[in-house]
Amino acid sequence: MAAESSRVVRAEEQEELPASGAVTHHTHTRSQSHIQFQPLTHTAHWQQAPRALAHTRSHSHTHFNNSTPSHTQRYGCRLTHSLSAMAKGERGVQGSEGKPNEPLFPKTSQQTDLSQKLSLCSKLCFAIGGAPKEVAASATGFFLQIYLLDVAQINAFQASMVLFIGKVWGAVTDPVVGFFITKSKWTRIGRLMPWMVGCTPFLVISYFYLWYVPPFSGSRFIWYLGFYCLYQTLITCFHVPYSALTMFLSTDQKERDSATAYRMTMEVLGTLVGAAIQGQIVASAHTLKHCPTSNMSAGYLGNSSGAEIVKSMVHSKEYLSYAKQAYTIAAGVIGGVFVICTVVMFLGVKERDDPYAPKTEKQVSFQQAFVLVMRHGPYLSLTAAFLFITVAIQLIQSNFVLFCTYAADLRDHFQNIVLTILVSAVISIPLWQWFLQRFGKKTAAFCGITWILPFTLMLVFIPNVIVAYVVAVSSGLTVAASLLLPWSMLPDVVDDFRLANPYCKGHEAIFYSFYVFFTKFASGISLGVSTLCLEFAGYDTGACKQPPPVVYTLKLLIGAAPVAFIVTGLMILLLYPITEDVRLRNKVCLEELRKQSIGSRTVEDPSNV
Fold first, then answer.
1. Which residues pair with 187 in a beta bridge?
2. Where is this region: Disordered (predicted)?
3. Contact criterion met (CB below 8 Å) for 260 and 127
4. Rounded to an integer, what distance in angstroms lies between the CA atom of residue 70 and that of residue 91?
5. Of 255-259, 382-386, 410-414, where does the model show the most confidence?
6. CA-closest candidate to residue 120, choices 271, 270, 255, 268
7. Which residues face 190 on adjacent strands?
8. Dihedrals φ, ψ of 190, to 5°?
9. Which among 136, 138, 420, 430 is least buried, having the fewest CB atoms inside 10 angstroms?
10. Could you tell me if 480 and 421 are in contact, meaning their C-beta atoms sit under 8 angstroms apart?
11. Which of 76, 146, 173, 83 is nearest to 531 (CA)?
12. What is the rounded distance in angstroms from the CA atom of residue 407 to the CA atom of residue 316?
């Protein structure tokens, strides 16, 4: 029966893999030192599984030529073949009096059913749950910097400290939250769902007060720093379990990829909604700023009468009052969206456990799992690549409104340009989903990210309305790719890690929390440095026109700096080893691990039937 099982798995593997004779595999190696933790179970065969798996992975990560296809197939899933044989052997001994071709316990529990196809309703509810985070992120990304400078009226250095410390604080909380999630127990609604539901009310309150201007002016820096750090902490408590929830929706890679595509589409729509709500409500405040068009000249105040100067000052007070009210209303609307979307996700998403790991009494600690994750080559290359790419996108996003206002003279169009970028991104998400299925995720990442490079430089050198809208449409393609690809590739990295470390179960949050940690930390540094650059260039808070050094600095932050970061990220992405062939092979091996794990658990505990 073991030989028969081996032939079946080998046939399944040949169906999954491409028909080409040469299969290229990623070159990162697995040594037996990666599997250091022996399970304490009743079967001695299980204790040899990690060594067999390490042997399997070391073979499967080498290069094979056309003359050795049988060698690849023979070693591709040796562990899963042997485990299936052992499980069937145990069942044969215990059920020898029955029919040999029938399993002793043919049923499995609903929680471990391998046919976990997701309904359209489940995918939509899961995707809707991620939208409010992007609604809030869009509002803060595009408008928080100019809000702190022109409405709250703290100086540029203090604004840079708020943005930098808040981002770094949010980055530090990611691994902390990930640690507590790994310690969480399963409840009736899952292990991750209580985190998201519990933090939502406090998250909405902190977000509202982040956009509220207190009546005092001396300690506004402390006010905004405190609420921004609180907001970053609570958004982490929501986002880390939500992103890790992808691995607990289904065991099917296609279903997870489909759910991720729905999620990214909805998140880009959330970004669009956030920019639309925030932009349309507060845009008039910035358009009707406290100086008329004639005031753009440098000598306007010197040539004006005293009555005109007094009128301008009164207009300034009216502008500030209107702007404060507009930002507060926008914050309340976005808070309501957050509550509604969280309730929809809670009602429509079911969290499932993944039965890939063999049963063991000895659990891998968080520290040991962290070391294994940080040594996992595909995770490091993917995280480092998209770290630089995310920094580039963040630089463009945070400085775009300032660039349109002071460097390109597009203050009357910036909200519509932002909406054009996001509409283009929403439309192109299905395009990139088709592209990655047709040509592979790594190829899609290269094509999608490089697309923005010439158009970013075009806007810097030709800052007019027509070019701005052309650049907006083209930039939407890259924004969609930068959102979809990393979250679609990260589950493949987790699967690769699971196959290399089958006993390291329950630590998926480490991948997502530290990925967010690294990207947030880098984004915080880039935002702080960019705002400091504006301070050193002589940014004048509340002024209608900025000096030439500020304009030049904004052009560098929109053009040259993002290009340099994107090129660096793409060079690192070349080292990412999980190709489509490797991903399909991992899928076959994990399916066998799940089947044999369910079989062994059924034999050990017949009461589950």
1. 190
2. 1-74, 88-108
3. no
4. 30
5. 382-386
6. 255
7. 187
8. 110, -175
9. 430
10. no
11. 146
12. 22
